Amino acid sequence: MSLLLDEMYPRRLAEQLRAAGHDVVAVVEVPDLVGREDAEVTRWARETGRVVVTENVVDYAPLDLDAHAGLLLVHGRR
């Protein structure tokens, strides 16, 4: 599974996950995605075959299911 970490996640997390063998890119590593609307982030994720990993349930959950390759909604409490 290819993942796209939403903007709330640091580059370091993506680096650590890649070091462990995962196919991960963070929004903060893609200059064209930084600061973009969620719909644009999901469009890019769909076009690149990536599942968006986010804690931003409120904004992502209502998006059209055809607009993304998948969502992994993470509970924000740590």
UniProtKB/TrEMBL annotation:
Residues 1-75 form the DUF5615 domain. It comes from Geodermatophilus tzadiensis. This is DUF5615 domain-containing protein.
